[in-house]
C-alpha cells in the first residue's frame, strides 16, 4: 500500500478530516473588537522592515531577558521589549505576588464571580509586573487521564465547565489590559513522552471535548494561544495545519497569535506555513539551535515562506498588543519581583474555601469548641525547609498548596493547617496537639483522648521535567502519598472521631479510608495555595458551609476510569467517554461522582421550567464566523429554570447542575453532558431561582460528515440536580 492510500485508510479509521492548507487564515466577516486593532497593526506593519518583523516573531533566546519569553523592541513603532511570562496561577519566580489557587480549585467552586475576580487579579498582578502576555489559563490538559501530571493547572475534566472558566478568566485578565494565553493547544493530556508522542484523536471527539474550551477562549477574544509539545494525528502541534490554520484560525476565527510552547517548534518552514506566529523562547534550552530569526529570513528570501505569511504573523502579534491597549503610554516597566499583591489574598481564601468539597460527614462537622484536638501529618505544617525551598515546587514536603512545574509560583506567605488551627484553638481555649509526621509510630499516643483527630494527607503531581518521589510528572498511582492510608488507619484505630483532610491535585482512591471504622468525615481540600489552613478552618468550624463540588470523578478503582498514561502514541480510543461520560456509559458506579459535594445544610429542588423564545430550528449553525465560530452557535435558544430552597438550619450555597441528553436522532453520545450550572447562596428557609441559559452550541453535536455543529431534531432530556448522579428534576426539550 502506498503512503497516500495508507494515510487515507488511517484517516478513515480515525474519522479524521484533513483541512486544506488555509494560510494565511481568513479574516472573519463583520466587525469585531479586533477590527480596529488589526487596522492599527496593518499600519504598523507597513512601516516595518523584514528584519523588524522577524524580530517580533522570534524570541530573544532561553534565559536572555527578564521574563521566561521575550522579544526585542522595535523603536520605530514604539513597540516594547515584549514580556511573556508564566503563568496560570500567578507570577512565576515572583517575590511580591500572590500565589493564587490553582485552576482546579477555582473550577471546584463553580462560582463564576470568584473565577472572574481571580482572573482580574491575576491580570492586575501581571500588569503591575510589566508582563504583556500572561501564559495562562489552561484548557489542555483537560484531564482525561486521572494520573495526568498537569490536570490541576486546568479547571475541570469537563469541556463545558472548563470553557466557562476559561472565558471568565480571560475576561478578567484582559479587562486590565493584559494579554491572556490559552494553552496547551491541544490534546496534551499527559507528561510522559509529551515531546515525542502523537495524540491521535477523531474529529468529533476533538470538537466536542478538547476544542470546546478553546472555542470559549477564542470567543472571549483571547489574545494568544500556545501550541503544545505533542504531535496531533502525526504532525507536531506547532506545525499542524489542521489544528492551527484549520480549526483555530479558520473555523473558530481566532484573530490573535499562536506562540509555541517553549522549544516545541521543530522546523523553520513547517511552523511558519502551518500557522505558528511566534517562536519561544527563540532558541533551544542550551541557547543554541535557532529555527526562526536568520533561518526564517532565509526561508522567506528562498520563497519557502511567503512575505504575506510573515506579515500575517506580525499583524496578529501587533493586533493583540493594540487590542489590549498596551500601546498607550504608561505600561509599567518589567519587574517580576514587584509587590503587586493588594488585597488579592481574599480571593485566594474564598476560592480555597469554596472549592473545598465535603465528601463524608456523619455529623461530626462542623466542630464546636472541642476541648481537645489532635492534628496529624507532615502536611499539617509548613515545609520545614521553607515554604519555597523546592524549585518550581518540585517536592511534596509539608502542607500542599499546588502541584509542581512551570505553572507553580512562590508563596508570599503560607498558612498551614496547624497555623490556622492553633489560632482558632487559642481563641476557643482548645488544647491542640500535633504529630507532624507521616510515621505511624507514636501516633496512637498523640491522638488518643482527643475529642477529634484531624489527619492531613496528600497526593501531588506536576510537569514532567521534575520527578518527585518517583512520580515523573504524571502520578504513578492514585493512592495517597506517604502511606496516607496506613496513617489514617493508625489514627482511627486510636481515635474514633477521625476527620480526614485530603490535599490533592486530582482523584485519589479512598476505599481503604472509607472502610476504616472511626473515619467520620472526609474533607477534600484540593489545592488551596497560600490560604491552605485558613480555608480549612473556615470549613471545619462552619464559618462557611462547604459548597465546592467535584470537577472530576473519584472512582473505586483506578481501572474504572478506562484511561491510563500511555507509553507510545495515544489513540484516544475512549473517544467522547472520559470521566463521568465514561462511568455513565459503561454503567460503573463511582465512589464520588462528578459534581458531588455535601453541605452543612440541605437543599430541595422544585418547579423545573423550560422556555424557548421561538421554535429551535434543527440542523447546522450557519452564522458568519466570529471569534469562537459561527455566531448563532452562541445564541441562547432555551432557558431552563428551577427553584432551589435551603431547607436546613444554616446558610449555604448550592451548585445546581443541568445535564442534557441528546435525542435519538443524534449519533451515539454520552448519556448526559453538563450544559449549565448555577451557584445560589441561600439563607435558611430561602429559595432562589437557578437559571440555565442554553445556547445553540449546548444542544449541538459535531457532524463529521457536514463539518458543522448540528442541533438534532427530537426530544432532549433535561436533568437538573445536585451532582451528575443526584438528579432531582427531569424534563425535556423539543426540537
Ligand atoms: C513549558 C510549559 O509547558 C508551559 O506551560 C510554560 O508556559 C512554558 N514552559 C514556559 O515556562
TrEMBL record:
Pathway: Glycan metabolism; cellulose degradation
GO cellular component: extracellular region
Signal in keyword set: yes
Residue span(s) of domain Fibronectin type III-like: 654-724
Record key words, sorted: Carbohydrate metabolism, Cellulose degradation, Glycoprotein, Glycosidase, Hydrolase, Polysaccharide degradation, Secreted, Signal
Signal peptide residues on this chain, from the entry's feature table: 1-19
Superkingdom, natural source: Eukaryota
Biological processes annotated in GO: cellulose catabolic process
Protein name: Beta-glucosidase cel3A
Organism, scientific name: Parathielavia hyrcaniae
Amino acid at each position: 500500500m502506498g503512503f497516500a492510500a495508507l494515510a487515507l485508510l488511517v484517516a478513515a479509521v480515525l474519522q479524521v478530516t484533513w483541512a486544506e492548507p488555509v494560510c494565511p487564515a481568513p479574516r472573519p466577516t463583520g466587525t469585531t473588537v479586533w477590527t480596529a486593532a488589526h487596522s492599527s497593526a496593518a499600519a504598523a506593519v507597513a512601516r516595518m522592515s523584514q528584519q523588524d518583523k522577524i524580530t517580533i516573531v522570534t524570541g530573544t533566546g532561553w534565559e536572555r531577558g527578564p521574563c521566561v519569553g521575550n522579544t526585542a523592541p522595535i523603536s520605530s513603532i514604539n513597540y516594547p521589549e515584549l514580556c511573556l511570562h508564566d503563568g496560570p496561577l500567578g507570577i512565576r519566580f515572583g517575590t511580591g505576588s500572590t500565589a493564587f489557587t490553582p485552576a482546579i480549585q477555582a473550577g471546584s467552586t463553580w462560582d463564576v464571580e470568584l473565577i472572574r475576580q481571580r482572573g482580574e487579579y491575576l491580570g492586575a498582578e501581571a500588569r503591575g509586573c510589566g508582563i504583556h502576555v500572561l501564559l495562562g489559563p489552561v484548557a489542555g490538559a483537560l484531564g482525561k487521564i486521572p494520573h495526568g501530571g498537569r490536570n490541576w493547572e486546568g479547571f475541570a475534566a469537563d469541556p463545558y465547565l472548563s470553557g466557562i472558566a476559561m472565558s471568565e478568566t480571560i475576561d478578567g485578565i484582559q479587562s486590565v489590559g493584559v494579554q491572556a494565553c490559552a494553552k496547551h493547544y491541544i490534546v496534551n493530556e499527559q507528561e510522559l513522552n509529551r515531546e515525542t508522542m502523537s495524540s491521535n484523536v477523531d474529529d468529533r471527539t476533538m470538537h466536542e471535548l478538547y476544542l470546546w474550551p478553546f472555542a470559549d477562549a477564542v470567543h472571549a477574544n483571547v489574545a494568544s494561544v500556545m501550541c503544545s509539545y505533542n504531535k496531533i494525528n502525526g504532525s507536531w502541534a506547532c506545525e499542524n495545519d489542521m489544528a492551527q490554520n484549520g480549526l483555530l484560525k479558520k473555523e473558530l476565527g481566532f484573530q490573535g497569535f499562536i506562540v509555541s510552547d517553549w522549544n516545541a517548534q521543530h522546523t523553520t518552514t513547517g511552523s511558519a506555513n502551518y500557522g505558528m506566529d511566534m517562536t519561544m523562547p527563540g532558541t533551544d534550552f542550551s541557547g543554541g539551535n535557532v529555527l526562526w530569526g536568520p533561518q526564517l529570513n532565509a526561508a522567506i528570501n528562498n520563497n519557502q515562506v511567503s512575505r504575506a505569511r510573515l506579515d500575517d504573523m506580525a499583524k496578529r502579534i501587533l493586533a493583540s498588543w493594540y487590542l489590549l491597549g498596551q500601546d498607550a503610554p504608561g505600561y509599567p516597566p518589567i519587574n517580576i519581583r514587584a509587590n503587586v499583591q493588594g488585597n488579592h489574598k481574599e480571593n485566594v481564601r474564598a476560592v480555597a474555601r469554596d472549592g473545598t468539597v465535603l465528601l463524608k460527614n456523619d455529623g461530626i462537622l462542623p466542630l464546636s469548641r472541642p476541648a481537645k484536638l489532635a492534628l496529624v501529618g507532615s502536611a499539617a505544617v509548613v515545609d520545614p525547609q521553607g515554604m519555597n525551598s523546592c524549585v518550581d515546587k518540585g517536592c511534596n514536603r509539608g502542607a500542599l498548596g499546588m502541584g509542581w512545574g512551570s505553572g507553580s509560583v512562590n508563596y508570599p506567605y503560607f498558612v498551614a493547617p496547624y497555623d490556622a488551627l492553633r489560632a482558632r484553638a487559642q481563641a476557643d481555649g482548645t488544647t491542640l496537639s500535633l504529630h507532624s509526621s507521616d510515621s505511624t509510630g507514636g501516633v496512637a499516643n498523640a491522638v488518643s483522648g482527643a475529642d477529634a483527630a484531624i489527619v492531613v494527607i496528600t497526593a501531588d503531581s506536576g510537569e514532567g521535567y521534575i520527578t518527585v518521589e518517583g512520580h515523573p510528572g504524571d502520578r504513578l498511582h492514585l493512592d495517597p502519598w506517604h502511606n496516607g492510608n496506613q496513617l489514617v488507619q493508625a489514627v482511627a484505630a486510636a481515635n474514633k472521631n477521625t476527620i480526614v483532610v485530603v490535599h490533592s491535585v486530582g482523584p485519589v482512591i479512598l476505599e481503604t479510608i472509607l472502610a476504616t471504622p472511626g473515619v467520620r468525615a472526609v474533607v477534600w481540600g484540593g489545592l488551596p495555595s497560600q490560604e491552605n489552613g485558613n480555608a480549612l478552618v473556615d470549613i471545619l468550624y462552619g464559618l462557611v458551609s462547604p459548597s465546592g463540588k467535584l470537577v472530576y470523578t473519584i472512582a473505586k478503582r483506578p481501572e474504572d476510569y478506562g484511561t491510563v498514561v500511555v507509553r507510545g502514541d495515544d489513540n484516544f480510543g475512549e473517544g467522547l467517554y472520559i470521566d463521568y461520560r465514561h462511568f455513565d456509559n459503561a454503567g460503573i458506579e463511582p465512589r464520588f461522582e462528578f459534581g458531588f459535594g455535601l453541605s452543612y445544610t440541605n437543599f430541595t429542588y422544585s418547579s423545573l421550567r423550560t422556555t424557548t423564545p421561538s421554535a429551535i430550528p434543527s440542523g447546522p449553525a450557519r452564522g458568519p464566523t466570529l471569534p469562537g465560530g459561527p455566531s448563532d452557535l452562541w445564541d441562547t435558544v432555551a432557558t431552563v429554570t428551577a427553584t432551589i430552597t435551603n431547607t436546613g438550619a444554616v446558610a449555604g450555597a448550592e451548585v445546581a447542575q443541568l445535564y442534557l441528553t441528546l435525542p435519538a436522532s443524534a449519533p451515539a453520545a454520552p448519556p448526559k453532558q453538563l450544559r449549565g450550572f448555577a451557584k445560589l447562596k441561600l439563607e435558611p428557609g430561602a429559595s432562589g431561582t437557578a437559571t440555565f441559559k442554553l445556547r445553540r452550541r449546548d444542544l449541538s453535536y459535531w457532524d463529521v460528515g457536514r463539518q458543522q455543529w448540528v442541533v438534532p431534531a427530537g426530544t432532549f432530556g433535561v436533568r437538573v440536580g445536585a451532582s451528575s448522579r443526584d438528579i432531582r428534576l427531569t424534563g425535556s426539550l423539543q426540537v
